[in-house]
Specification:
By secondary structure, the protein is α+β, with helices and mostly antiparallel strands. It has one domain. The protein is 43% helix and 23% strand. The protein has a 4-stranded mixed beta sheet. Strand 1 and strand 2 form a beta hairpin. The termini are far apart.
Length: 99
């Protein structure tokens, strides 16, 4: 049984990272361009490297229509910044976000 290629990518900035799975190579490339334009590093992953090395990171499956509609790199970056401020003790951040 042959499995379809999976389009997994690890997006990272300032010590925080997420795993994103696109629908196809075109999705992966456009996501990579957007992420890199916002200062993130991108690393393509195989499913074999995902389980031992990246399992436990927040995962966004862009093959899911709801996730496609709601996922935003800007939101991820804003959440990381708010979380960083919260952990550094800045006032005014009462919410907990992803790391």
């Amino acid at each position: 049984m042959t499995q379809k290629k999976r389009f997994l990518m690890f997006l990272k900035k300032d010590g925080s990272g997420v795993v994103v799975e696109g629908r196809n190579a075109s999705d992966e490339e456009s996501l990579k361009k957007e992420a890199e334009s916002k200062g993130m590093t991108c690393q393509s992953l195989t499913i074999e490297s995902f389980y031992p090395d990246y399992r436990g990171y927040r995962y966004f499956d862009l093959r899911n229509p709801v996730t496609q509609e709601t996922f935003s790199i800007d939101h991820v970056l804003e959440a990381w910044e708010a979380d960083k401020k919260h952990h550094e003790g800045h006032e005014g951040t009462d919410e907990w976000f992803i790391h």
